[in-house]
């Protein structure tokens, strides 16, 4: 039995018009793809939402040529302030149609409507607003008096934040004067296609943004096309490595945003209730499908039992189920493949000797689901302490001294993010300085802002997105 009973508060899906089938968005228009189309489903119900085109090598070539033409003829030569106006227009249209985007994102991805409504869509709009402001101020970006765009950007994104990752890629590319060929993830293409409609509504010149849907083969065609000047990828470390190999030896510029296994460090002086909220937010936000998720909880030994007990109590109140319900905390796992990966890694946790805990309660019968899960008695050698699960699974480890916390936190092949919970400001600053992580949160977690650069060390990738630093990924410095 849960602590509180809530009446269902379902968001209506009637605000979105999902077409039975979608083509590619090339040169300002929707056109049929020449590959075999794929179906995209709602992971919470297994219902087919639409059939979506697959871009072949030839379609990708058409897209790159359209992007090149736009770069040479319209977007490249345009006054920077005018480019900014288009970006402001896109940002406003995203806000105007926010509810439509949120509902569509939740249907296609499985994330709770509360998150798509309050996080994904507003942050996507904020990214366009922020970069719109930069468009005519690039001489102040710290890259010389007249930094130049690179040309055509080939961008490939994952399924965990479909619209937001699109915004992270498209907004800086356009603000800096580049044109784009973007490939969304195969399980979540719909908000990118709705974004294509926004580009039409904003009167963006044809070819500035091209959206080519499809799976890994289409992505490979985008990143390896000889006329692409810049490759930007967000996704798994494994695919990131193959892209780094494909791009090596060419004159393409590359940025990679890959996986993570972040340490969320709780010291004995931290306010426990507040830390528990941060731990929950760190690992259960977006079902844990978050590259910077706080998936390794490092707790100071003296407060371990109290923290774990409070955490389990809190997890018992989380509502798992219908993502369209405004009260839902955890939605569906995005795909059967991802569910299988989560199950495989958690099974390792049990055979390796960690203790698995899950709250009581049933999961919906249809769709792809996984309960919020906590492993205690985890040792640093366990696979659940090393491998990215990319699901709602937390591994709890302990430490005794600050030095041990730092050593354990940095004992990972990744380096994307970390969290520190302590009352002491001086301790926070000292520890943050020693962590090899691109983002370090103090007494909060999973907080995002377009003004703050995001990116990793080691196998989490290279390059930054957001902030002034993010502009450098799309510009050639001038002297
Ligand atoms: P994935 O690497 O399998 O797929 C990502 C994208 O790459 C998809 O669009 C896919 O179609 C495409 N792709 C697959 N093979 C390709 C190839 N050979 N060449 C070009 N494109 C190819 O990853 P995923 O399963 O979609 O996403 C989960 C992973 O992404 C996790 O490991 C997660 O940590 C990472 N991720 C990182 C960030 C970040 O900002 N660092 C953000 C989100 C996700
Ligand atoms: Mg889908």
Structural descriptors:
seven-stranded mixed β-sheet, binds nicotinamide-adenine-dinucleotide, alpha/beta, about 475 residues, Aldehyde Dehydrogenase, Chain A, domain 2, six-stranded mixed β-sheet, binds magnesium ion, Aldehyde Dehydrogenase, Chain A, domain 1
Overall CATH architecture of the largest domain: 3-Layer(aba) Sandwich
Q: What strand order characterises the main sheet? A: 14-15-16-13-12-17-18
Shape: globular
And the CATH topology of the largest domain?
Answer: Aldehyde Dehydrogenase, Chain A, domain 1
Uncertain runs are none
What's the helix and strand layout?
Layout: E1 21-22, E2 24-26, E3 29-31, E4 38-42, E5 47-52, H1 57-75, H2 80-96, H3 98-109, H4 113-134, E6 148-149, E7 152-156, H5 162-175, E8 179-183, H6 190-201, E9 209-211, H7 216-224, E10 230-234, H8 237-247, E11 253-257, E12 263-266, H9 272-284, E13 296-300, H10 304-315, H11 336-351, E14 355-357, E15 373-376, H12 383-386, E16 393-399, H13 402-410, E17 417-421, H14 425-434, E18 439-442, E19 461-462, H15 467-471, E20 475-476
Parallel strand pairs: 1-5, 7-8, 7-10, 8-9, 10-11, 12-13, 12-17, 13-16, 15-16, 17-18
Antiparallel strand pairs: 2-3, 4-5, 6-20, 11-19, 14-15
Helix pairs in contact: 1-7, 2-4, 3-4, 4-5, 9-10
Magnesium ion (MG) is lined by residues 40-41, 108, 187-188.
Structure description:
This protein is of the alpha/beta class and 479 residues long. It folds into two domains: 21-258 and 458-476, Aldehyde Dehydrogenase, Chain A, domain 1; 263-442, Aldehyde Dehydrogenase, Chain A, domain 2. 39% of the residues lie in helices and 17% in strands. The strands form five sheets. The chain has a seven-stranded mixed beta sheet with strand order 14-15-16-13-12-17-18, with helices on both faces. The longest helix has 22 residues, at 113-134. The radius of gyration is 22 Å and the shape is globular. The chain starts with 20 loop residues before the first strand and ends with a strand. The chain binds nicotinamide-adenine-dinucleotide (NAD) and magnesium ion.
């Amino acid at each position: 039995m849960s602590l509180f009973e809530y009446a269902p508060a379902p968001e209506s899906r009637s605000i979105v018009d999902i077409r039975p089938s979608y083509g590619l968005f090339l040169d300002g228009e929707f056109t049929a793809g020449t590959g075999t189309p794929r179906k995209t489903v709602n992971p919470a119900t297994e219902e087919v939402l639409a059939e979506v085109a697959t871009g072949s090598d030839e379609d990708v070539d058409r897209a790159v040529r359209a992007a090149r033409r736009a770069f040479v003829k319209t977007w490249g030569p345009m006054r920077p302030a005018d480019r900014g106006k288009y970006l402001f227009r896109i940002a406003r249209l995203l806000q105007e149609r926010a509810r439509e985007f949120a509902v569509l994102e939740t249907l296609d991805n499985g994330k709770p409507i509360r998150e798509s409504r309050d996080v994904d869509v507003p942050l996507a709009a904020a990214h366009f607003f922020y970069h719109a402001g930069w468009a005519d101020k690039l001489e102040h970006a710290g890259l010389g008096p007249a930094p130049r765009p690179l040309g055509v950007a080939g961008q490939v994104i994952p399924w965990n934040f479909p619209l937001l990752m699109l915004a992270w890629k498209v907004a800086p590319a356009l603000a800096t004067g580049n044109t784009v060929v973007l490939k969304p993830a195969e399980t979540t293409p719909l908000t990118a296609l709705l974004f294509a409609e926004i580009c039409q509504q904003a009167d963006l010149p044809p070819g500035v943004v091209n959206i080519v849907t499809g799976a890994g083969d289409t992505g490979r065609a985008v990143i390896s096309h000889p006329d692409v000047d810049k490759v930007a990828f967000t996704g798994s470390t494994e695919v990131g490595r193959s892209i780094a190999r494909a791009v090596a030896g060419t004159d393409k510029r590359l940025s990679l945003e890959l996986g993570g296994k972040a340490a969320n460090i709780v010291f004995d002086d931290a306010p426990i209730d507040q830390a528990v909220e941060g731990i929950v937010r760190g690992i259960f936000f977006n079902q844990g499908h978050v590259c910077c998720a706080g998936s390794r909880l490092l707790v100071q030994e003296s407060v371990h039992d109290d923290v774990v007990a409070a955490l389990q109590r809190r997890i018992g109140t989380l509502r798992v189920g219908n993502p369209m319900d405004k009260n839902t905390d955890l939605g569906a796992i995005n795909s059967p493949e991802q569910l299988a990966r989560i199950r495989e890694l958690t099974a390792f946790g049990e055979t390796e000797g960690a203790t698995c805990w899950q709250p009581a309660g049933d999961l919906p019968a249809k769709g792809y689901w996984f309960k919020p899960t906590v492993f205690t008695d985890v040792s640093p050698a366990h696979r659940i302490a090393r491998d990215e699960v990319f699901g709602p699974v937390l591994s709890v480890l302990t430490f005794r001294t600050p030095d041990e916390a730092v050593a354990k936190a940095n004992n990972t092949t990744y380096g994307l993010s970390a969290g520190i919970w302590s009352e002491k400001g001086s301790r926070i600053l000292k520890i943050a300085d020693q962590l090899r992580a691109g983002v370090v949160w103090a007494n909060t977690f999973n907080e995002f802002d377009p003004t703050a650069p995001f990116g990793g060390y080691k196998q989490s990738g290279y390059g930054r997105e957001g902030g002034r630093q993010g502009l450098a990924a799309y510009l050639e410095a001038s002297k």
